[in-house]
Specification:
- 24% of the residues lie in helices and 28% in strands.
- Strands 1, 6, 9, 10, 11 and 13 form a 6-stranded mixed sheet that branches. Strands 2, 5, 7, 8, 12 and 14 form a 6-stranded antiparallel sheet that branches.
- Strand 3 and strand 4 form a beta hairpin.
- Helix 5 packs parallel to helix 7 and helix 7 packs across helix 8.
- The radius of gyration is 21 Å and the shape is globular.
Length: 396
């Protein structure tokens, strides 16, 4: 039972939803508890395997409890991803926080393996063993403990062991920030789960994050709007655009009414909550070239994947979407609605990452920010939105 480190016996605490923050739903599996970032009703309305994978990856989800424990063990069953022809991906990271400060990091070996062949469009799963995330040497006093789960690795929670009793974290009175976006908000190539740009912005803003950043999604799906509507929140932001272009999903005629409908649905549940619409960050390949975007596999063996815009700029005349078209339309829609909705705000995504940043911190695959860019975006968002902007604390 790994008792060599300490004198106190292990206590196993049943894993329940009240020990989790940032999940909208939990599923009981054969192994334990699987956190979901979309409710079952939403999952039932979409058969897209990419969305199913993204919403089951616990970006922003953390185990949160109060305890005097000096040692914590969390047994999990991760699902790792392997891409045919690409070098192996590193194991997902678990970030430990004690009383709100970083206090350790580890990973879990083993687990299931999902092998994805992007050229053939196939995927197969191989099952593997449960592993353990272990943290020792914690201060011997009552404290808030948070374990941020890997943002890019589906994680079933199997068992929690500590050397002192555990209680759910009390409400600290912090505002809840509910954010929705694409893989960039999900965390793409961030260094760890607590260093995705939304997690960094939330830490600086002193708020509790619920991250509905969904890799490959953020497609104005009505079921996502209903999930946002039904989730308690003090602040809400939606970052819309890049995947509508990548997927070449809709034309301008459909886009405007879909944005209105999405915002109408959120407002049904949150009529006066500060609501921020964020347009896409700079992405040079799609600024004026419509989608779809397609992966370029030629550099995959070197561990690099790039994305190319496959559309023709001339197709904008027929209503095809580009990032510039989307930004203009979002700004127009927010301006129109804000006349009757004083709590609705707009932020041009290029204020988070624009021409100056692209020169200094280019997107490695032409689509996704790297760890340094996540840090920059988190700091900028905190500065523009939390420090003095639409999410500034009353009396700040």
């Amino acid at each position: 039972m790994h008792t060599e480190h300490h004198h106190r016996p292990w206590i196993t605490t049943p894993l329940t939803a009240d020990l989790l923050r940032g999940a909208l739903d939990v599923e009981r599996t054969a192994h334990g508890l699987l956190p979901h970032r979309l409710p079952a009703r939403a999952r039932a309305q979409c058969a897209d395997p990419q969305l199913a994978m993204a919403e089951s990856q616990p970006s922003g989800v953390r185990l949160a409890f109060r305890s005097s424990a000096t040692a914590v063990e969390l047994d999990t069953l991760p699902t790792k991803r392997e891409y045919v022809g690409a070098p192996p991906r590193p194991d997902g990271l678990y970030d430990l926080f004690v009383d709100g400060r970083p206090a350790g990091q580890t990973s879990v070996a083993g687990g299931n393996t999902l092998t994805i062949d992007m050229t053939a469009g196939t995927a197969e799963t191989r099952s593997g063993p449960v592993g353990t995330a272990r943290f020792t040497g914690l201060p011997d006093r009552a404290k808030d403990i948070e374990i941020w789960l890997p943002h890019n690795e589906t994680t079933e929670l199997v068992a929690l062991r500590t050397d002192a009793p555990v209680a759910p974290l009390p409400d600290r009175g912090r505002r809840v920030w509910l954010h929705h976006g694409s893989s960039i908000s999900h965390g793409s190539d961030a260094a760890s789960p607590s260093t995705t740009w939304p997690a960094l912005a939330a830490a600086r803003g002193g708020v509790d994050l619920v991250n509905l950043g969904l890799s490959g999604s953020a497609l104005l799906d009505p079921f996502t709007a209903r999930a946002l509507r039904d989730t308690p929140a003090d602040l809400i932001s939606v970052k819309i655009g890049i995947n509508l272009v990548n997927a070449d999903l809709m034309r301008l005629r459909a886009f405007g009414p879909a944005v209105h409908g999405f915002l109408d649905t959120i407002r049904e549940g949150h009529p006066t909550v500060p609501l921020l619409v964020v347009s896409p960050i700079l992405c040079p390949v799609h600024e004026d070239t419509p989608g779809p975007s397609a992966p370029d596999f030629s550099t995959l063996g070197e561990g690099r994947l790039r994305f190319r815009a496959m559309g023709d700029p001339a197709e904008r005349a027929a209503g095809k979407l580009t990032l510039n078209v989307i930004r203009e339309e979002l700004e127009r829609i927010v301006r129109q609605r804000a006349a009757d909705d004083p709590n609705l705000h707009h932020l041009d995504g290029r204020a988070l990452y624009g021409e100056a940043e692209a020169a200094r911190l280019p997107l490695p695959d032409d689509l996704h920010p790297d760890a340094a860019t996540h840090r920059h975006m988190g700091e900028r968002f905190a500065e523009l939105v939390f420090a003095a902007g639409p999410f500034a604390a009353p009396g700040a």
